[in-house]
Design a protein that fits this description.
This protein has 634 residues and is α+β, with helices and mostly antiparallel strands. It has 11 helices and 17 strands. It is elongated, with a radius of gyration of 51 Å. It is an enzyme of class 2 (transferase).
């Protein structure tokens, strides 16, 4: 057998380097192949993303250009409107001045005022929308040709639809003998109480201590601006099929490449009949500012095919407009085809180079591995004799080391049973000498001596078979297991006034009962040693309860004050102990953890706990053993 193993080892030395070289080279080639394939795919994806990003930037620039054009129109038109109404007021002021000068010496101020009122009240401009009004320093309306019913009424405290006191501004112009623009929201004539934004200009007329003014509703001018903007937008074209579309926030098309869409609701658009939510999403984007939207357009302009489209949307909230444009995915794909083709050709050339380099690498490494195999075989033969000489000595040393460790473990486990035997026998001798030995005490002590002696014998067998795979399992109930365990240690625990409080559910296991008893004794003895440091009230609590998922928890805790935090990571290490060398070896908890984890397939955990018993607060160490009932009963 030994010679056969040596031959196997020599075969490994001969062929393993070669196999390793082949495997390693093959792995490297595959790694390079897939890694570079991944790199090329990522590069393709990156190029595609760049193309999409580039097209996104283009359509965003086109929309922003339209947006800025409209904003400039709005800005210029508002200034033009201001210039217009200012010049109108200056004209009216000049007319009023000439009338006053002409009739100053022949008519009263009241008569002159009436002449001015009639003259200015008859003037209309801007296609009949424009008119002049006059107010005095008290806030009285002197002239309003569109609604003469308000003439003579005081509006000093009147506020517009947004709470602005516009007549106070007119009064201030009169008091300060100046002029100014104003903006407010006034009822539009010939409407059912509709309120519109109005820009006005007031100028002080000193001869009659009043203000002459005029104004224009901004939305009337906006319609003209919007018409100009839509004419400009409808003429925009870019790329192969780019155009600008415009909808209002009610979903009506205002501008589109297909003229038959204009003036219709988006719900009537066959291009989007299967994706109506796209327009709703666009409207949401527009109302909140700007952004991109992806959807399917049923018919690309100039074709009858459905194409994925990415659009950029910009909202004009003051007009309630959605301005947008987009690009089609197939246009981007056609641009990418040539680029991807070049990348594929580059990748194919790279793969060929990898294969050539890989084959050369394998050949070189095979040659090197052959020489390494020969070198290792020679070294093996040189050391073989030396290894044979030392084999017997090493085997004997190993047996002695194992025996020494086993004797140490047995000695540790024997301390308690021997103490029990000594205590029981000494008690019988003492009571016999004093003449008070009773049959009950004699039989009880004899029983404990016999039980402890059997446990000593059983301990030898248990330790002898501890690492053997041929241990025998058996069925047992945990209640009986604890009765046996506590029976072995009860005499010493009672002598030390240690009270054991039990709450044990009777759970059946199929496992190594004696090893579990050894583990429990180790934990209980550990608690006992710590409790002896207390002067009174020494408690150990044992709880056994079945938990979810067919598991059982065995919890043993005491009121000895707990384990120091710095010891938690070491308590299950071999030969670690906080006691004096003469009091402990540090093997108990180590053996306990070995038994629970390796032989009972369980878990043991330790922690410090605080709890209340008999209305008193205590702190101590708690050991929890978790066992799987289902596994143990299989």
């Amino acid at each position: 057998m030994k010679i056969e193993k040596e031959k196997q080892f020599l075969r490994i030395i001969k062929f393993m380097p070669t196999l390793f070289v082949v495997f390693f080279s093959f792995f490297i080639i595959l790694f390079l192949y897939y890694e570079n394939k991944k790199t090329f795919n990522e590069e393709k994806k990156e190029i595609e993303e760049k193309y999409i990003l580039k097209n996104k930037e283009i359509i965003q620039e086109e929309v922003n250009r339209v947006y800025e054009f409209i904003k400039q129109l709005q800005k210029n038109t508002e200034q033009e409107l201001k210039n217009n109404i200012k010049s109108r007021v200056y004209e009216a002021h000049s007319i009023a001045t000439n009338i006053y000068k002409e009739y100053k010496g022949t008519k009263t101020d009241k008569e002159i005022f009436e002449l001015i009122k009639v003259t200015l009240g008859s003037i209309r401009y801007n296609e009949g929308r424009g008119y002049f009004f006059m107010d005095d320093v008290h806030g009285n309306k002197l002239l309003h040709p569109i609604d003469t019913s308000i003439e003579g009424k005081n509006f000093i405290n009147y506020t517009d639809a947004k709470g602005y006191k516009l007549f106070q501004s007119i009064v201030n112009v009169i008091k300060e003998k100046t002029e100014r623009f104003d903006e407010y929201y006034w009822y539009k004539p010939n409407t059912n109480g509709e309120i519109g934004r109005k820009i006005s200009f007031y100028k002080y007329f000193e001869p009659l201590n009043m203000a002459i003014g005029t104004g224009e509703y901004f939305d009337d001018f906006e319609k003209i601006i919007q018409k100009q903007a839509l004419e400009y937008i409808s003429a925009i074209r870019f790329g192969s099929s780019g155009y600008i579309f415009v909808l209002n926030y009610d979903g009506i098309y205002l501008s589109h490449i297909k003229k038959d869409f204009i003036g219709k609701d988006y719900l009537e658009n066959d291009n989007l009949k299967n994706n109506i939510k796209a327009i709703k999403e666009m409207l949401d984007i527009a109302k909140n500012g700007s952004g991109f939207c992806t959807y399917i357009q049923n018919q690309k302009p100039g074709t009858n095919i459905s194409v994925k489209k990415i659009s950029y949307i910009q909202g004009l909230n003051d007009w309630g407009w959605l301005v947008g444009t987009g690009f089609y995915e197939d246009d981007v794909n056609s641009e990418l085809l040539e680029v991807k083709k070049k990348l594929d050709e580059k990748y194919e050339a790279y793969v060929k180079n990898i294969l050539i380099i890989g084959i050369i690498l394998i050949i070189v490494l095979l040659i090197i591995s052959k020489y390494i195999s020969i070198f290792l075989e020679n070294k093996f033969n040189q050391y073989k004799k030396e290894l044979d000489k030392n084999q017997t000595l090493l085997h004997q040393q190993s047996k002695m080391a194992a025996m020494g460790e086993m004797i140490g473990n047995i000695a540790h486990q024997w301390r308690q049973p021997l103490s029990t035997i000594t205590t029981a026998s000494s008690g019988m001798v003492l009571q016999k000498e004093m003449g008070i030995l009773t049959d009950e005490f004699f039989y009880e002590a004899s029983k404990k001596i016999n039980t402890s002696a059997q446990h000593l014998s059983q301990t030898i067998d248990d330790f002898r078979n501890f690492f053997s795979p041929n241990k025998q399992k058996g069925k047992f109930f945990l209640r009986n297991t604890f009765l046996t365990t506590l029976d072995l240690i009860s005499a010493q625990f009672n002598a030390k006034e240690i009270n054991i409080i039990k709450n044990i559910e009777d759970v059946e296991l199929y496992s190594y009962e004696n090893e579990l008893i050894q583990a429990l004794i180790n934990i209980l003895n550990n608690s006992r040693d710590e409790l002896l440091k207390r002067d009174s009230e020494r408690y150990i609590f044992i709880d056994v309860k079945k938990t979810k998922n067919d598991k059982v928890d065995i919890i043993i805790k005491d009121n000895a004050g707990g384990i120091k935090e710095e010891y938690f990571d070491k308590i299950f290490e071999p030969y670690f102990t906080t006691k004096h060398q003469s009091q402990g070896t540090g093997i108990g908890l180590y053996m306990t953890e070995e038994i629970i984890s390796k032989h009972l397939n369980g878990i043991i955990e330790a922690e410090n706990v605080e709890f209340t018993y008999n209305d008193k607060q205590y702190k101590g160490a708690s050991f929890t053993i978790k066992l799987d009932i289902k596994d143990n009963l299989n």
